[in-house]
Write a structure and sequence with these properties.
With 283 residues, the protein is α/β, with parallel strands linked by helices. The chain contains 15 helices and seven strands. A hairpin with a 5-residue loop joins β6 and β7.
């Protein structure tokens, strides 16, 4: 698959109407800092990192060089891009900040917030996954649409979204950088949240690498006991052969001590599956 290049184009190339005149100094106005409100679709949750403190120091010394992009809200203005600068300006004690007022739809605001954060590598994996979920769930974008818009492969987006299925404790460990995305994806190999938490404890206690975690998961899968099936008698084996002949596909019957079980029909292609379905439906 050819690499997506959306991010490389920069925000201006992706939202030309929204950012038009961004470098035109007379186009910005000074706005009271209390008139601005955070972006409702802001993907980032943590604004207390080292980079933010450095930004506060820079603003105290030189002020805000790059205006904040906003849109009109019911009361005041909602930030489209530049929330980090606005928060840092508050910490730096500024009373007003330069803003550029633009018209923008909700989906444009959500996309721009996500893309700006991705370009700055400002999101942790859970924040990024939640931003993708907003764009797919609230605005109906497909994973392929997201792939085109944010410049990442669809498989990468799908794997990131899967992280939201993890238990809260695992998500917190990932957010706090106690584990990596590789560790988290390995834990998704087991469906039970209880088992995932047990493995997380082992990973943290022994400081396991991603590869060590993957090996641990493989070993657990090998040793995890499944349902015990009764040894097949001659009658069941004869029924299997008869059904296999009728279905023209391998059929296996599994029974448990509780007299429950399953019948398994093995097919080798989509055409084979369609043929079996037609036989079962007596078409």
């Amino acid at each position: 698959m050819p690499q997506k290049n959306s991010l490389g184009k920069g925000l201006g190339a992706m939202f030309p109407d929204l950012l038009e005149g961004f470098n035109n100094r007379p186009s910005f106005v000074m706005c009271g800092i209390e008139e601005l409100s955070p972006n409702r679709f802001q993907a980032r949750r943590d604004f207390n990192d080292k980079q933010q403190q450095q930004l506060v120091s820079s603003i105290k010394k030189s002020g805000i060089i790059q205006p904040i992009i906003v849109r009109k809200a019911v009361a005041g203005y909602e930030i489209i891009a530049g929330e980090r600068r606005w928060r840092a300006a508050q910490q730096a004690g500024l009373q007003s900040v330069p803003v550029i007022i633009r018209e923008a739809q909700d989906i444009e605001v959500a996309e721009l917030s996500l893309i700006e954060n991705i370009q700055r590598e400002a999101l942790n994996p859970i924040e990024e996954a939640e931003a993708y979920q907003t764009l797919t769930g609230q605005f109906g974008l497909s994973q392929e649409d997201l792939s085109t818009r944010v410049g990442k492969d669809r498989s990468t987006i799908a794997n990131t979204l899967r992280l939201l299925k993890l238990p809260p404790a695992v998500k917190n460990a990932l957010t706090e950088k106690k584990i990596t995305s590789g560790h988290a994806r390995s834990l998704l190999g087991i469906d039970s949240p209880k088992e995932q938490l047990k493995i997380l404890e082992t990973v943290l206690k022994k400081a396991l690498s991603v590869r060590d975690t993957e090996r641990l998961m493989q070993n657990l899968k090998k040793t995890t006991p499944g349902k015990k099936h009764l040894k097949k008698d001659i009658y069941i084996m004869d029924v299997e052969r008869t059904l296999s002949r009728i279905m023209m596909a391998k059929v296996q019957i599994y029974l448990t001590k509780k007299k429950s079980g399953r019948i398994e029909i093995i097919f080798n292609s989509a055409d084979d599956l369609n043929r079996v379905i037609k036989l079962l439906m007596d078409e």
